[in-house]
Design goal:
D-Amino Acid Oxidase, Chain A, domain 2, disordered C terminus, binds S-adenosylmethionine
Length: 624
């Protein structure tokens, strides 16, 4: 349930929980400009930087964020990338978000863009993306201290804004401020409107040099600080990889993983050369006629469930940004059939959300041709996608060059003072030189990353053209097998059903036994639809498509350096398994964040669950 807001007669929003107002009576943008932007020397401080990272405690209505975003838009010297990370335990409703912004017409269009992505705010991190991905908002939904522990980056500016210290001491406790200080680098500036003694003492103890400045009336003062500890700051955790400066990057593979990485890096200024062995992009598993985009849901909200939710949000933004809804993808929702004893949801999920999956109601079941009482989930934030269209859109971004028909056989280090890489084919012919390399070649990554246990998983789907007589469910149905219908094609709508999982096979030929298996499963999943498709199989118009995915030992993607000591060189972004649509965009942003010392799009534990280092650990474990 969204946090209730009490609106005062003068329009200022108030929290009953904290018995305090959300912003100064002088108006939120004025406060944001004077106290927060002004206190941190912005916008001048970010001029001509490649990126700027702001950490805020207390997102509230996001009026600080919107004011910063607007200042960024209006600044011709703005950084290429603006990161705003904000922590919020009690998110307000979308309506209240818009109501608060309505008082400031200059912010309203931005608030509307924010409101459009203001959904599904379960506890955890949510990466929202604006202005073609140049403005990235990471909302950390949860209590301030655990959220700070789950994030890791060096902030350039810090805004402290969590109701008054008297009303909300936890937000300003010595422990909270110590945790905030861990985000500071030497020179990081901090701003807040309170000059409470305990707050000043804690910040000073943690290395901030503080100045009292004139406040925004009716407040007399506000506080500004700069992180300049008198002591040497101790290294926390493993030594960070020095942030990369955008240069030349070679990406091996032009499927979903490679295309997503290319787009994320090109957006950060990299010159990307994509090398693809086939004669076209999306020639492997990403060439599937239509794929499902739906979250994994489990009663304990397991790791995979949280990862796929974050992944779908990342993909959704890209679909909405670059593709045409209705022809390249459809936000149809997906019905997932479950066994009767296997349809439990997390205990705290509610009918009104913020979760976006529920037990399917009788109307949904009927629309899918299933009897009332069938056990099924309805995923509202789900649908189908033509993956090759997404690959094409990503590869069309400026700064990306694609070379097909070249198979990389070797990646060699060249240069002495600066690491450089040469990519050669089996004859030794030079294909590319680059500062960094990303291997994203699906199961063919094995040849370039032999130390990793990458397993090919062949998949076969059946597909065909829909006839006028067919009445297939409009929303895809998933379960043991799946059916997608109504996918626009050049010569009419298509249906698609599958898919098989054939481990350790790379055989591209369709198999009759797999067709029979896919049909049997469809007959169990959706008997009516299967009966309608019998004719297509009988008259030979149904076709089979095969592709080979790539899976890791624990079935999660591998994102990280090929070897621990080579973090500034060759990286892996592969093993997306049969969840390329769920994971490609997220893995690409995670890789880019790690290269550039940016805020993580995922809580640390989830990011570690995708780190290729775990595969190295598994190798060690199996060798012992
Ligand atoms: N910066 C906001 C803006 O620009 O609209 C206003 C922030 S408001 C003054 C403070 C916010 O801190 C509230 O939304 C409140 O729910 C949140 N908050 C309070 N205590 C918190 C805690 N312990 N952890 C996380 N968020 C908290």
């Amino acid at each position: 349930m969204a946090e209730p807001v009490a609106w005062r007669a003068d329009g200022v929003p108030r929290s009953e929980r904290f018995d305090d107002i959300y912003h100064s009576e002088s108006g939120a943008p004025a406060q944001a400009r004077h106290v927060f932007l002004g206190g941190c020397g912005l916008p001048a401080a970010w001029a001509h930087q490649s990126q700027w990272r702001i950490l805020e405690t207390g997102f509230g209505f996001g009026l600080n964020f919107l004011t910063v975003w607007r200042a960024w838009r209006e600044d011709s010297s703005r950084p290429r990338l603006l990161h705003f990370v904000s922590i919020e335990a009690f998110p307000v409703s979308r309506d209240d978000l818009l109501r608060a912004a309505a008082a400031y017409p200059e912010l309203l269009p931005l608030a509307e863009a924010l409101a459009a992505q203001w959904h599904g705010l379960l506890p955890g991190f949510h990466r929202l993306s604006f202005d073609e991905g140049q403005v990235l908002l990471t909302l950390c939904i949860g209590d301030v201290q655990p959220m700070l522990r789950a994030q890791r980056f060096e902030a350039d500016s810090i805004f402290l804004d969590g109701f008054s210290p008297q009303r909300n001491p936890a937000m300003w406790s010595a422990d909270t401020l110590k945790a905030v200080s861990r985000f500071a680098r030497r020179g990081t500036r901090l701003a807040t409107w309170t000059i409470a003694r305990a707050v000043c003492d804690a910040l000073a103890q943690n290395g901030f040099q503080l100045t009292k400045a004139a406040g925004l009336p009716p407040k007399r003062d506000c506080l500004q600080g700069v992180f300049a500890p008198a002591w040497q700051v101790r290294q926390r955790g493993p030594a960070p990889v020095p942030p990369a400066t955008a240069g030349r990057c070679a990406v091996v593979g032009a499927g979903l993983a490679g295309a997503a990485v290319s787009a994320s890096l090109a957006r950060r200024g990299w010159e990307v050369q994509v090398l693809e062995a086939a004669d076209r992009p999306a020639a492997g598993a990403s060439g599937l006629p239509a794929g499902l985009l739906a979250p994994h849901v489990s009663p304990d909200d397991a790791l995979l469930s949280r990862l796929t939710r974050a992944g779908i949000r990342a993909t959704w933004q890209q679909l909405a940004q670059w593709l045409v809804e209705g022809s390249d993808w459809r936000a149809s929702g997906v019905l997932e059939r479950r066994a009767a004893d296997d349809d439990r949801l997390p205990a705290d999920w509610a009918a009104e959300g913020p979760n976006e999956s529920w037990h399917a109601d009788p109307d949904r079941l009927r629309a899918s041709g299933l009897p009332a009482g069938s056990s099924a989930l309805w995923h509202a934030r789900a649908g189908w996608v033509r993956p090759a269209r997404l690959v094409e859109a990503w590869l069309a971004r400026p700064g990306i060059r694609v070379q097909t028909g070249c198979r990389v056989a070797r990646i060699e280090r060249i240069g002495t003072d600066r690491a450089q890489w040469a990519l050669r084919d089996a004859n030794g012919t030079l294909l590319a030189e680059a500062d960094r390399v990303v291997i994203a070649a699906g199961f063919e990554s094995r040849a370039l990353a032999p130390a990793y246990p990458l397993q090919p998983v062949r998949g076969q789907v059946e597909w065909g053209r829909m006839t006028d007589a067919m009445r297939l469910p409009e929303a895809p149905v998933n379960g043991d097998g799946h059916l997608i219908a109504g996918v626009p094609g050049a010569e009419g709508a298509l249906w698609c059903a599958g898919a098989t999982f054939d481990r350790d096979s790379i055989d591209a030929r369709p198999r009759a036994a797999d067709t029979a298996f896919n049909r049997e499963r469809l007959a169990r999943l959706l008997p009516e639809a299967a009966a309608q498709l019998d004719r297509a199989f009988a008259d030979g118009t149904a076709q089979a498509w095969t592709g080979v995915r790539c899976a890791s030992a624990d079935r999660r993607p591998l994102v990280g350096p090929l070897s621990p000591e080579g973090a500034d060189g060759v990286w892996l972004c592969t093993a997306l398994g049969s969840r390329g649509l769920s994971f490609a965009a997220l893995c690409a942003e995670l890789l880019a964040a790690r290269w550039h010392g940016e805020p993580l799009p995922l809580p640390l534990k989830l990011a570690q669950a995708l780190d290729s280092a775990r595969a190295a650990d598994q190798r060690l474990a199996s060798a012992m």
